[in-house]
Design goal:
755 residues; alpha/beta; FAD/NAD(P)-binding domain; Phosphoribosyl-aminoimidazole Synthetase, Chain A, domain 2; 4 domains; 7-stranded mixed beta sheet; 5-stranded parallel beta sheet; globular
């Protein structure tokens, strides 16, 4: 009986703006069964624009004002892709991506924000910096800050910053920059300095969209702080360190920032969406495109027909809830809800010094209490999308089937890991394999109890056929990335024995879905697999596919090698150096990702390591006279090292502090986030000799962390170590490290001595 919910529609969210945050949260709290959702965004750490002035002023740190979209997407069960869109085909409902296959969709939602129009003023893109995108502005801000401080420390020089635009962004930036630089120079806010800040506005006043009381106070405050306001001056051109106005006046500047004339990218118009006269996506009061009913848009990129509102973060935030509701209603064929944006919104503008201005219609307030109000509102918004509940995995057992103790044990393991964290425990596997009959064929050089990474069959031509099979449960809902990593993982057993992969058969378990969606997933999966196989000079020659409750992918891989050239797990020699080609930590990081605790930066870093093939590594190791080798995967470093030691009762010193770890892995282990297989892997500690100080070392638990697409663990002659490591790092294995040495062979029992 088919029990899995089929995927029948695909919703694609483009952009990680404020409105889409609410969509993701809603999907996490109340999933829509049968709806697949993908988020495509250039930036994964999305900034909250309302807190940017606080960051500039030094009140907040970078992470304080950014929301990591990855945990939120994981919480929502949404696939997240960091990519650039090159084209959207609304006729065939297909999105073209810069470096991936095109993606089909049924429903599209756009929350792409807006940026200052760099084409509006000649020279803007070359000689000035836009206030958005915020990620790019922050990089430039660091350069401006360092240059200003360096120049101002020299009493003979000054520094001039020109800000073009008379809106809230310009005013907040001017206040915040002054506070930040003065603090760095060790002078008071009102103290005179050679820092010159100018705001140039084409209007006859500053903050034209606000009431007169706000404008009067702002002008007064700017003057009191020594910030010059230039009005009625339309900027017509930027040149190197120069701002040119229509009236012929030129202003010299050491740095120029512009916050004028918002615009969106060209592709919404190019793909045929209805665009307003001022260049934004036209939507109705359902936040639905007026030209294409299956397209929705919100935030700065959209303008509601008949209800135009300022391009402000507060409106984008408020549109999030109705957008989420209507996307779900449209997907489930229900009537859409009307959204009526408020006529006036509360505007809170930072003054940089933990004071703020409040403005709403004709109301005006100022002072420290306003800043504290703003701080509470901003912080609450960020926490709403950063502090996520971990949903428990239900057991769905009939009452009375198990006693309380067994139920507790099962509950503790209900949230199972994927990748190699989902392998059967080594001791369970060994016990079963020991009960199987021995091989009888003379040409079969290995058996089911062999510790080698691949089976060995002697061919008539004298070569040995190596065969291995691996299958992984998906550890990410990014099908393309999963397929590339899984393919490299499956090839690794062949590489670990010193051979070159020749051919492969694919095994696919595809989640139940409509024909259209299943075809799309399978195509993406197999294209990624084929591309990776080609990079490894391996040919896909067939395979098998079937429906499955979850996405699985694996390969049966063939390789050929001369028998005397095989790298076995045994064969370590006294004095050999132990080299590990990749860092450890995929198990705990993937487990953390499942619990919405992993940062995008750390998971991306882990994926980058996992996506590196072991091809160039083994070529280098053979060149430097390696004899004993294995790949580090599901049983962890300790488990796989134990296999290398068992045949000849080898003892090794393992230098715990030298074992490389992926970014975030040690922190994740210290937080108690363990992969499903971790505790079973810890049985390898029976052969570990360690002082108590080693056992409390954060890297101790790293020994038992299951790896997916891990590196190679190899013994090479000590004399070759330095040259080998240099070549490995040149080949892209930047964290390849000598982690120990062989101290004894032929002892009473195998032993790992931690140092």
């Amino acid at each position: 009986m088919q029990t899995a919910t089929p995927i029948v529609k695909h919703l694609v969210l483009v952009g990680g703006g404020h409105s889409h945050l609410a969509v993701l949260k809603r999907l996490g709290m109340r999933p829509v069964q049968g709806l697949a959702v993908t988020l495509i965004s250039r930036d994964i750490n999305t900034p909250y624009s309302g807190s940017l002035p606080g960051l500039i002023a030094g009140i907040y740190e970078h992470d304080d004002i950014h929301i990591d979209l990855r945990p939120l997407a994981q919480f929502a069960g949404v696939r997240i892709i960091q990519e650039e869109i090159t084209e959207i085909d609304l006729v065939n409902k297909r999105i073209a991506l810069l470096s991936r296959p095109a993606m089909d969709f049924d429903i599209l939602s756009l929350n792409i924000g807006s940026n200052p129009d760099g084409d509006l003023i000649p020279g803007a893109l070359r000689h000035a910096t836009g206030i958005k995108p915020i990620s790019e502005f922050l990089l430039k801000w660091r350069e401006i800050f360092d240059a200003a401080v360096s120049s101002l420390k020299n009493q003979d020089t000054g520094f001039t910053l020109v800000i073009v635009g008379g809106g809230p962004a310009s005013v907040e930036l001017a206040f915040s920059v002054q506070v930040s630089i003065h603090r760095q120079l060790g002078i008071s806010l009102m103290e005179k300095s050679k820092l010159k800040i100018q705001i140039i506005s084409a209007d006859d006043d500053v903050l034209k969209s606000h009431n007169q009381a706000v404008r009067n106070f702002t002008r007064s405050e700017l003057k009191q702080r020594g910030i010059e306001l230039v009005v009625n001056s339309l900027v017509t051109e930027f040149k190197t360190n120069t701002v040119i106005c229509e009236n012929g006046v030129e202003y010299s500047a050491d740095a120029i920032v512009f916050a004028t004339g918002a615009k969106i990218p060209r592709w919404p118009a190019d793909c045929g969406l209805s665009i307003t006269a001022d260049g934004f996506i036209e939507v109705n009061n359902h936040l639905q495109s007026t030209s294409h009913e299956f397209v929705f848009a919100a935030g700065d990129a959209a303008t509601i027909k008949g209800a135009n509102r300022p391009k402000s973060g507060v409106y984008a935030v408020r549109q999030g809830k109705p957008l989420a509701e209507n996307l779900i209603r449209f997907a489930t064929a229900r009537n859409l809800k009307t959204y009526r944006p408020q006529q006036h919104a509360l505007a809170l503008m930072s003054m940089g010094d933990k004071k703020a201005i409040a403005s709403r219609n004709n109301l005006f307030f100022k002072g420290s209490w306003v800043w504290h109000l703003k701080h509470r509102i901003d912080t609450a918004f960020l926490k709403k999308y950063s502090e996520l509940p971990v949903m428990s995995a239900p057991l769905n057992l009939a009452k009375g089937l198990v006693d309380k103790q067994v139920e507790e044990q099962l509950s503790a393991h209900a949230l199972r890991c994927a990748g190699c964290g989902a392998k059967v425990a080594g001791n369970v596997l060994e016990e079963v394999l020991q009960q199987l009959p021995d091989n009888q064929s003379a040409d079969v050089l290995s058996s089911h109890t062999s510790i080698e990474d691949a089976s060995m069959i002697k061919m008539e031509n004298g070569q040995v056929l190596l065969q291995s099979v691996d299958q992984l449960k998906a550890f990410t809902n990014d099908v393309w990335l999963f397929a590339k990593i899984a393919t490299n993982h499956c090839l690794s057993d062949i590489y670990a024995m010193g051979a070159t992969p020749h051919s492969a058969l694919a095994v696919v378990g595809l989640p139940f879905a409509t024909k259209k969606y299943a075809k799309s997933q399978l195509k993406e999966l197999m294209l990624a697999c084929s591309e990776t196989l080609q990079e490894n000079e391996c040919e896909l020659i067939g395979g098998h596919s079937a429906e499955s409750s979850e996405l699985h992918f694996g390969l049966c891989v063939n390789g050929f090698i001369e028998e005397e050239k095989i790298l076995s797990k045994g064969g370590l020699r006294e004095g050999d150096s132990l080299i590990l080609t990749k860092p450890l930590g995929t198990g705990t990081l993937l487990a953390s990702d499942m619990r919405y605790r992993a940062s995008h930066r750390n998971i991306t870093g882990a994926f980058q390591h996992m996506a590196i093939s072991n091809k160039l590594a083994v070529e280098c190791l053979i060149q430097h006279n390696a004899k004993a080798c294995t790949d580090v995967t599901g049983f962890g470093l300790a488990g796989h090292l134990a296999e290398m030691l068992s045949e000849d009762n080898v003892s090794v010193e393992l230098w715990l502090d030298d074992i490389p770890a992926m970014d975030g892995a040690l922190e994740s282990l210290q937080a108690g986030t363990l992969s499903s297989l971790h505790q079973d892997n810890k049985l390898a500690s029976e052969i570990i000799s360690a002082h108590v100080t080693s056992m409390i070392n954060p890297r101790y638990e790293l020994l038992f962390d299951p790896q997916t697409a891990g590196g190679l663990l190899v013994g090479i002659p000590k004399a070759n170590t330095k040259k080998c490591l240099r070549q490995l790092r040149k080949n892209g294995y930047m964290l390849a490290t000598e982690i120990g040495q062989v101290t004894l062979t032929g002892g009473e029992q195998p032993c790992i001595i931690l140092k």
